[in-house]
């Protein structure tokens, strides 16, 4: 995995050394020797990662990091603070300034590269989500703006896996009352809880003797339900191999034992904030997709979605999996409703038609608003006889009770006409829709409020 990395240090030999090490791993490296210079380069070049020295004149690394995180243009660039300071309060100060990780000099090359790879993987995922959201907004598919700063207050659920009950309880106490913390003592129990519940963070003790925490982390990352959940691993500071292996397996962050309350709180909040932001982006994308395939008036699927489902049905039919029938509906004398009662009344009628379609068709049937007052229902696995029974049930449900149109106006009697067609060998989407449309025309010619089907379909059934 390659990427562009900005190295910031006021000591030139340090810069050259880090640059050489990173370029040997095929990273593109930018450099800066002052905090203000680093901020300007970050704004212009937008690197994928910043390695930032803490002890610099004029503007230290904490202030540089805070300014980078305050600017929307650089807020999402991961920052690793590099310093000779090795006190927990120094790490907490860096994390609170917005740093994503903290490395102590002299830098261990293997650990450095593992942390770089881990953060670059994360940034790649976040960049993809942000890019999709930006494209969706540019195309008009997304209207809401995802907030850059996510509020992490509220119900924050954390699962802690420890092999020592006393240690688990101490972690729970250090987390405090602001979190809904669940403790468990063995991997099987943790896996079951992760499958059944939604957690904001999973904390696992990799130094535990009673289980293999790395194996569990690998299993979680291979499972769809746990692939996106942040994992905070508790490790012994001298166990470099376990730290590197954890980061390469996809652990989000590591925290050295013994656990200090302030650093624990800072790392937990960083992980949850990042997860909430990613969840917000994904929800925005999911909502935009739903809007792109949903008719906004009726809540049914739109024509684009119907076309896709019909193509799927044709593939399944060609492979001998199952047949499919198509029902095309039209609201009888709908123009008269609009002319007499107004378009608001017409909208209410269409919405009620959609509700009755949902109530009277199977869950696997795909109901769509085809356009105007026309609807199409794609019925997977339904023969023409199955489809006729369902269509008659729907027709009777529409005719059976009058439609409320609001504004104190009396209920309106509404009926529908329908045309049915079943897939045949050699069919295309255009052909079956044309046959269903012809049957709909026959139903209207026959006096409306009835369902007609293709005679060849009926004989084949």
Q: By helix and strand content, what is the structural category?
A: alpha/beta
Proportion of residues in extended strands: 15-25%
Average of pLDDT = 88
The proportion of residues forming helix, as a percent range, comes to 40-55%
SSE diagram, text form:
Layout: E1 4-8, H1 12-24, E2 28-32, H2 35-45, E3 49-53, H3 61-70, E4 79-83, H4 88-96, E5 101-104, H5 109-138, E6 157-161, H6 165-175, E7 180-184, H7 187-196, E8 201-205, H8 213-222, E9 231-235, H9 240-249, E10 253-256, H10 261-292, H11 303-318, E11 324-331, H12 334-341, H13 343-360, E12 366-371, E13 374-380, H14 384-400, E14 416-422, H15 429-445, E15 451-453, H16 455-460
Parallel strand pairs: 1-2, 1-3, 3-4, 4-5, 6-7, 6-8, 8-9, 9-10, 14-15
Antiparallel strand pairs: 11-13, 11-14, 12-13
